[in-house]
Amino acid sequence: MRVVKKPRIADTGRGPLGRSVKGSNGPGPIGPGEAVGEAECKVCGMNQRPDVLPIVSSPIWSLLLACMLGLAVALTAFSKPASADAKLGAWIEGVWPDAEAAGVSRKTFDAAFKGFTPDLKLPDLDLPGRPSNDARGQAEFTRAPSEYLDRAYLIRLATTGKDLAAKHKATLEKIERELGVDRYSVLAIWGRETAFGHHKLPHDAINVVATQAYLGRRKDLFRIELIAALKMLESGVPRSLMRASWAGAMGLTQFMPSEYFKHAHDLDGDGKTDIWNSIPDALASAASQLKGKGWVAGQTWGYEVILTREADCGFEGPTQERPISEWAKLGLKRANGRPWTEAQLALSAYMMSPAGGYGPSFLVLENYKVIRRYNMSDLYAVFVGNLADRIAGGGDFVTPWGGTGPQKTSNIEEIQQRLMALGYDVEKIDGKVGSNTRKVIGLYERTNKLKVDCWPSDTVLDHIRKTAAR
After folding, report:
1. CATH annotation of 297-391
2. CB 202 within 8 A of CB 26
3. Which end of the chain is more exposed for a tag (fewer CB within 10 A), N or C?
4. What angle do CA 117, 122, 124 make, to 5 degrees?
5. Separation CA 359–CA 361 (nearest Å)
6. Residues 6 or more apart whose Cβ sits within 8 Å of residue 387
7. Whole-angstrom distance, CA of residue 370 vs CA of residue 376
8. How many whole angstroms separate alpha carbon 157 and alpha carbon 138?
């Protein structure tokens, strides 16, 4: 199979929560330096000054010019070290035994890697000069929560989602009967991942997962994805369909290759699992994945609550999960003013404050964890949960999202390092704001009698630096 390389375009990152709205609407025009080749050579001799032509036409000068051009081509060819090509070739051959064991033929394998060149523009690569906390392309970990959970965008998606709920009513009812996942959550996944199919994915999946497996920071994880992507080719999925995010997620609801063989679902009964063009298959596949990750039928994702002095944002995170009845004893009430029911009080939940003290807080249930397993981000899970509520007829957040500003990766990493040095239980130093980081910031603020806002602000970083300097 001959693979035709298309012009590369930039990945714009995610819209809101997702595992992010990813990329632009398909290939754009050829940019500077991309159209070099035969067409360019045809104009090499044009527009020269007439007085130059006799010199160039001399046999001696023509020979000299030809030699100089030959030397230039040779130097260009050797500008890329042969060792780099040898290393890549050895790595590709090292993948073959795993691919063969997974049932991939040599013909498919060779066709997949023909002309492969790692895409060094992708995020999350382990390259010299590239920061270790590179979070480009991951809007969940770079944008302000208020920007990621943009109200106007949520309203637009909810309006479209309601129309699609009516249009695909029979399909969604079948999904609820067969898989036990409610229609609103399935639609919310579709809306968050590809804006209901309007977002076009910019990358070739094989190139992406191969680059990440070869040069990425999570090589082992992406090697698994690469083998699964090769299996997809072997099973008959056309490579032209396998357009992906920078991380290799494909289809209307963004499936990683490894999830395709576990959860892709042929709901329309045509004998194929088409997550790219069949809305029934794509939505059922998303539902199947949620079910496989532990979805609890008939249960919501969480409740917005109002925090108290006795239960501030320092109580955040799954390590402090408890029955809602115990949260109620600490004074937590539903933000919409409704009382807790007996059934709700019996549920187990943990506190989630994605913007620290500068936005809504929630008591989240098992289905929140499941959405998070679909895409490991708190903001993503809140986005999907709230969008599902809106499609079902619910409204806005009660507490507004405050002005935290963008998430500053370098500041977050320094705060994590310094708090770990001070003895706080920091799970990992990654420059990303998760529930553990917000919790330990809150505990530090509480211990030092600061305003407890659980956010990695310049103010708290300055205080931590002064504490370390004493």
Report:
1. 1.10.530.10
2. yes
3. C
4. 120
5. 7
6. 154, 157, 158, 161, 187, 188, 191, 192
7. 10
8. 20
HEC string for 240-295:
HHCEECCCCCECCCCECHHHHHHHCCCCCCCCCCCCCCCHHHHHHHHHHHHHHCCC
Q: Which residues face 243 on adjacent strands?
A: 204
Report which secondary-structure segment, H or E, holds 406.
none
Query: Which position has the higher pLDDT, 47 or 115?
Result: 115
Q: Where are the alpha helices (DSSP H) in 321-399?
A: 324-329, 342-345, 366-374, 378-391
Residue ranges per structural domain of the chain: 297-391, 409-469
String of DSSP letters for 328-346: HHTT-EETTSPPPPHHHHT
CB atoms within 10 A of CB 224: 17
Q: Which position has the token pair 């632009």?
A: 24
Q: How many alpha carbons fall within 13 Å on the CB side of residue 4?
A: 2
Rounded Cα gap, residues 379 and 139, in angstroms = 9
Whether the CB-CB separation of 56 and 230 falls below 8 Å is answered with no
Task: Please identify which residue in the block is written with the tokens 């407890």.
Answer: 452
pLDDT one-digit tens code per residue, 120-155: 999 999 998 776 555 554 555 578 899 999 999 999
Alpha helix (H) ranges present in 142-278?
A: 145-148, 151-167, 169-179, 183-194, 205-215, 219-234, 257-263
Q: Give bridge partners of residue 125 from the DSSP assignment.
A: 216
Q: What b-and-e string marks burial along 425-458, b requiring 16 or more CB atoms within 10 Å of the CB? A: ebeebbbbbbbbbbbbbbbbbeeeeeebbbbbbe
β-bridge partners, 316? 351
Q: How sure is the predictor about 437, in pLDDT bands with cuts at 50, 70 and 90?
A: very high
- The Cα–Cα gap between 291 and 298 comes to 12
Q: At residue 350, what are phi and psi to the nearest 5 degrees?
A: -125, 160
